[in-house]
Amino acid sequence: MKLLLTVVMSITLSFSAFSQQQELNTEFRQAAEKLTALLYHIENSYVDSVSTNKLVDDAIRKMLEDLDPHSVYIPAEDVAKANEGLEGNFEGIGVQFNILKDTIIVVSPIAGGPSESLGIMAGDRIVSIEGENVAGVGITNKDVTDKLRGSKGTIVNVGISRRGTKDPLDFEIIRDEIPIYSLDASYMVNDKIGYIKLNRFSKTTMDEFTTAMKQLKANGMEDLILDLQGNGGGLLETAIDLADEFLKVNELIVYTEGRSYPRRDRSATANGDFEKGRLVVLMDEGSASASEIVAGAIQDWDRGLVVGRRSFGKGLVQRPIPLPDGSYVRLTTQKYYTPSGRCIQKSYEDGAEAYYMEKYERYETGEVFSLDSLHAPDSLKYFTDKKRIVYGGGGITPDVFVPIDTTQSTKLNTDLIRKGVMNSFAITYSNKHRKQLLKTYPTVDKFIESFEMNTVIEEFKAYTADEDSEIEWTDEQYAASEKMIKGRLEALIARNLWNYSAYYQVFNPYWPAFSHAVDILNDNSYKNYNLARTEF
């Protein structure tokens, strides 16, 4: 009860401070008094005992749910975890792991983390934590996270089983701040084309991006493919900073506006890192929010080509609002608009569930297979700097549409991915042959050039038969999906030998949107799209 009174008093006081020269809104005051009165009577008169805190939490969630899909409540105990992806770090021992055959396998130690500095290696098996056996006991991903994460400076004792070592190795690990990287991959596609993939927009993104760009330029990069497929967004300021790297000084990037917030323009500053050079941005239905700000600005100024499929359609800005007990509300306060005036927010009138399911309904409508199925009214028509037509009201529509390729989609391929069999085999194979593989293929380029998958596939087929995964292997289905199965498996092996960048370097050529982007840059058809930049 005290919590509710504190919350209501805080809201009332905050509103009073905000409205010092106005009378307190009568409707607001009556609503607050009504809620307080109801909670008072429940606390003192209801037939059964209840948790007032839970009632308040549930009421807040319901209120926000009825507003829009992106206004959310975060309980105090979840605030730190909810901010991890945006802050770009967490505190723990610094390993990427998988659970394979009921055992925790270190996929790789995180660079610069305490585990790497102690010599913990990819392929190590964590068999005990604080003296407690964790192998063969049904441990879950959440269990591992709960046991290994902790405050910076605290100690956790871990027992490691390592191939070639008879007895377990004991490590005393001092937890530290561990970076969460927002840049998955950065490499040269060929002598002129560079590639960068971002998975989110966090506080560390620009530092990661700047470092990658410096290396790519040193390697001779002239053109860039920026991969924002599946990037669900993040910090608005980071999106603005990234777009600034591509646009000329004073070119508008985005503007925001809301009922209580006047229009605010955000424009490019001087000295962007890639203001010249051909640029392709990859998007799909999983690209949202900050990704759409960057793509929208690039498209509206005709700075580069957007290739792929229509993005998610999130054009709302959330502001974090602290509550007295340490919890937070991320409240939608503004909409954002691209330079041409587009609000790309899609409709949420049918509720949150329908809102999030809409991107899957694009399969049923045929949109992911053909852009002809997408019909936008003239009221949503806008024009780029070179008077090309673009549309608002539901995501960024690409300049070059690339349909989903289902020609190699079979039940076998789907099951191998969904049931984790590919991943578990790649870990097992990489650990078994690690020394020899790295000796034979000292670089990713050498691996791509010379690694032979045919013998690996035979071993993989036998592995699926021994696994308790209920994989139904048929030669007919394998023949239909052979290219994708081989490509993904080779990429997973590369990831386990090196890093995530190696995964994309191996697998991207199998991905249609990436291949289209490379073709557009290689065959010089880029210039046919009537973009504003004529000098590169």
UniProtKB/TrEMBL annotation:
Gene3D superfamilies documented for this protein: 2-enoyl-CoA Hydratase, Chain A, domain 1, 2.30.42.10, 3.30.750.44
One GO CC annotation: outer membrane-bounded periplasmic space
InterPro entries reported for this sequence: ClpP/crotonase-like_dom_sf, CtpA/B_N, PDZ, PDZ_sf, Peptidase_S41A, Tail-specific_protease
A single BP term in Gene Ontology: signal transduction
PROSITE patterns on file: PDZ
UniProt KW keywords: Hydrolase, Protease, Serine protease, Signal
A family per Pfam: CtpB_N-like
Domain PDZ: 76-155
Record bears the keyword Transferase: no
Record's signal peptide: 1-19
GO molecular function: endopeptidase activity; serine-type peptidase activity
PANTHER family xrefs: CARBOXY-TERMINAL PROCESSING PROTEASE CTPA, TAIL-SPECIFIC PROTEASE
Family: Belongs to the peptidase S41A family.
Record's protein name: S41 family peptidase
Taxonomic classification: Bacteria, Pseudomonadati, Bacteroidota, Flavobacteriia, Flavobacteriales
